[in-house]
Recover the amino acids of this structure.
């Protein structure tokens, strides 16, 4: 599972700088989802990232692994990790 998560992260980190930026997140989302408004994707990213992520310039692999574990194991519907793969349909 660890290798799967790392591989997915590497696919998102297009420029291989060790951070998934909002632009890379957008690209990942729009290649998988039909989105009427890019603002939905931006809002999802902004809900997903922490202040520390923003200071670094994006999501690190370590942070992505943390978010992934929350995505799989946290039952709280308001957990930021629900946006790991993009906007949640209404």
């Amino acid at each position: 599972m660890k290798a799967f998560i790392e591989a997915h992260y590497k696919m998102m980190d297009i420029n291989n700088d060790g951070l998934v930026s909002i632009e890379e997140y957008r690209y990942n989302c729009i290649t998988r989802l039909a989105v009427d408004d890019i603002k939905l994707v931006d809002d999802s990213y902004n809900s997903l990232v922490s202040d520390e992520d923003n200071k670094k310039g994006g999501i690190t692999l370590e942070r992505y692994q943390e978010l992934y574990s929350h995505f799989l194991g946290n039952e709280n519907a308001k957990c930021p990790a629900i946006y790991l793969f993009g906007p949640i349909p209404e």
User: Anything to note?
Assistant: Residues 71 and 82 are 6 Å apart (CA to CA). Residues 1-83 form a domain with the Recoverin; domain 1 fold (CATH 1.10.238). The radius of gyration is 12 Å. The chain has five helices and no strands.
